[in-house]
Design a protein that fits this description.
Chain A: Pfam families: Sigma70_r2, Sigma70_r4_2. Chain A: This is RNA polymerase sigma-70 factor, ECF subfamily. The complex is a heterodimer of chains A (169) and B (140). Chain A contains 9 helices and no strands. In chain B, helix 1 packs across helix 2 and helix 2 crosses helix 3. The radius of gyration of chain B is 55 Å and the shape is rod-shaped. The longest helix of chain B is centred in the C-terminal third of the chain and has 69 residues. Chain B contains 4 helices and no strands. Chain B has 2 domains: 51 residues, no CATH class; 51 residues. The chains are: A mainly alpha (169), B mainly alpha (140). Chains A and B meet through helix 2, helix 3, helix 6 and helix 9 of A and helix 2 and helix 3 of B.
């Protein structure tokens, strides 16, 4: 596989890889390093990529595994976790100010979910993958994805409603 | 979009039974700003999903490693090694030559000292010869 061909295949999902890494590793710098490292790994294994029916799914699986390794490793445990450095582009300024508090609340709620549910929320609600694709990425069956997703959504909603009713955010 | 429909979709959404298209419908509804008061908390949720998706990886990805640098490093190392071996060898030769030089000088010095001793003895012998000649007449 030539470099240009490789880039054409893998570049379209670099933001998705980055966002998943960030969801799991929290800090932007860590996520950037992870993305870089992952693409380097993909490049090294470029000859094997043709064997996978979906390179994107394979890359997401690799990202997940890599991030888990990072979280387990001592190196990551020494790093300071940054919680509030995400950016919100695309919404109007006024709306952004208005939503800012509650948006970071959603962020925190997702952060508190178990790893598996966190990944599924990320892949489904943000990246909009089909259940079958998520199942392939996580190597579990689609029903399990559905169950986890439903559980995660309900947890978030419950917490949000609670906060909303109390007027605390 | 009817409110009843949205509520139905939300119910399905929580059970993870919505399709991607239906979820897009929900995202659209909650992004247009005119949201029913009792569904306000969903607005932040779907708003968060949309804004999260717009986050980008801004750095450039590098595929080339520093492997080539390692190659050059080994070349440099072997050059350094060669040079140091060569200079070490030179130095060694020099030292050897100096040692030999010193030894030869010492040997020559000893030789000349001994030679001088010999000449003194010969001079004494000469003295003895002349005295003998004085005492005994030389036969003609």
């Amino acid at each position: 596989m030539k470099q240009s061909e490789f880039l054409k295949t893998v570049m379209p999902f670099k933001d998705k890889v980055f966002r998943l890494a960030k969801r799991l590793l929290v800090s932007t710098e860590e996520a950037e390093d992870a993305t870089q490292e992952l693409y380097f790994k993909l490049w090294k294994n470029k000859n094997k990529l043709a064997d996978y029916n979906s390179i994107e799914a394979f890359a997401m699986t690799m990202t997940k595994n890599y991030c888990f390794d990072r979280l387990k490793s001592k190196q990551a445990s020494n790093l300071k976790l940054v919680h509030s450095n995400y950016q919100e582009n695309g919404t109007s300024l006024q709306k952004r100010v208005e939503l800012n508090d509650s948006v970071s609340l959603v962020h925190k709620l997702i952060e508190n979910l178990p790893e598996q549910q966190k990944i599924i929320i990320q892949l489904r609600d943000i990246e909009e993958y089909e259940f079958e694709e998520i199942a392939e990425m996580l190597q579990i069956n689609p029903t399990a994805v559905r169950v986890s997703l439903s559980r995660a959504r309900k947890t978030i909603r419950e917490q949000l409603t609670k906060q909303h009713n109390y007027g605390i955010s | 979009m009817e409110l009843a429909n949205i509520e139905k979709l939300l119910e399905k959404y929580l059970n993870a039974e919505t399709s991607i298209a239906e979820e897009k419908e929900l995202k659209n509804y909650f992004s247009q700003g005119n949201v029913a008061p009792h569904l306000k908390e969903y607005e932040t949720l779907f708003g968060y999903f949309s804004t999260s998706k717009s986050e980008r990886f801004t750095k450039t990805i590098q595929l080339k490693t520093k492997k080539t640098n390692w190659k050059w490093l080994s070349v440099a190392a072997s050059v350094v090694l060669l040079v140091s071996v060569y200079t070490g060898y030179q130095k060694n030769q020099e030292q050897k030559a100096e040692k030999i030089m010193a030894e030869t000088q010492m040997a020559l010095g000893m030789l000349s000292a001994n030679l001088n001793k010999g000449t003194v003895a010969v001079a004494q012998l000469q003295q003895f010869e002349t005295t003998k000649n004085k005492v005994f007449k030389q036969p003609k």
